[in-house]
TrEMBL record:
<keyword id="KW-0472">Membrane</keyword>
<feature type="transmembrane region" description="Helical">
    <location>
        <begin position="12"/>
        <end position="31"/>
    </location>
</feature>
<feature type="transmembrane region" description="Helical">
    <location>
        <begin position="76"/>
        <end position="94"/>
    </location>
</feature>
<protein>
    <submittedName>
        <fullName>Uncharacterized protein</fullName>
    </submittedName>
</protein>
<keyword id="KW-1133">Transmembrane helix</keyword>
<feature type="transmembrane region" description="Helical">
    <location>
        <begin position="143"/>
        <end position="164"/>
    </location>
</feature>
<keyword id="KW-0812">Transmembrane</keyword>
<feature type="transmembrane region" description="Helical">
    <location>
        <begin position="184"/>
        <end position="205"/>
    </location>
</feature>
<feature type="transmembrane region" description="Helical">
    <location>
        <begin position="114"/>
        <end position="136"/>
    </location>
</feature>
<feature type="transmembrane region" description="Helical">
    <location>
        <begin position="43"/>
        <end position="64"/>
    </location>
</feature>
Length: 209
């Protein structure tokens, strides 16, 4: 008796979630069959739930690293550093009357976050070159074409080489980045989004059974 009620409740919640998600997505494309106020309200609820999920994620991360520091597990110093930086950034945002637009918050973003992101982006290029090198070492077909396409793009994106490269090469790389590469990236993002959507639906449906 209890299991049948639980299954009915799970299926009802599943239908509500799927219908709400469909209405929100349709409203973003102007195809919503309901009045705009309904889709706007659902969108606001989704944002509110997303905010709560973000807070829970932050709390779980803090709890995990606190436990790691308390137990003295491997690389606990990195966890302690993460907690200290988190406390400093949170304190800067809360203590500043302007919030995230305050001078201290902007300085943290400009002097810490932005350089860190640039460093990670630069390391990505190095990792890609290392992967391409290992790919070419085992003589797989197509490795030379990958290197021939990646090398000019890397050269054009390098500031001190950009000025001395031929204009024709720069224009060719810009065209490749604007059209074929962008089309491939959009295809990858669309495929990834659809895969995540279908996997999420499958998990929800299996969980409702």
């Amino acid at each position: 008796m209890y299991s049948s009620r639980s299954g009915w409740f799970n299926r009802t919640v599943l239908l509500i979630v799927l219908a709400s998600a469909g209405l929100i997505i349709a409203s973003r494309f102007g195809l919503s069959p309901v009045p705009p106020v309904v889709s706007t309200t659902l969108y606001g609820w989704a944002l509110l739930l997303g905010a709560f999920a973000l807070i829970l994620g932050i709390a779980n991360t803090v709890r995990f690293h606190l436990a790691r520091v308390q137990r003295g597990q491997r690389e606990w110093l990195l966890s302690l550093l993460l907690l200290i930086v988190f406390a400093l950034v949170l304190g800067a945002g809360i203590s500043s009357p302007e919030g995230t637009t305050g001078l201290l918050s902007e300085w943290i973003f400009d002097a810490v976050v932005a350089p860190g992101q640039a460093t990670l982006y630069a390391l990505t290029g190095i990792f890609l070159l290392s992967a391409a090198y290992h790919f070419l070492r085992i003589d797989r077909p197509g490795g030379l074409w990958i290197l021939a396409g990646a090398l000019p793009m890397l050269l054009v994106q390098t500031p001190f080489l950009y000025r001395i490269l031929p204009t024709a090469l720069v224009d060719l790389v810009d065209w490749l980045l604007s059209w074929p590469v962008m089309a491939a990236m959009r295809g990858v993002l669309l495929g990834s989004a659809l895969a995540v959507l279908f996997i999420s639906l499958r998990l929800i449906v299996n969980g409702a059974k």
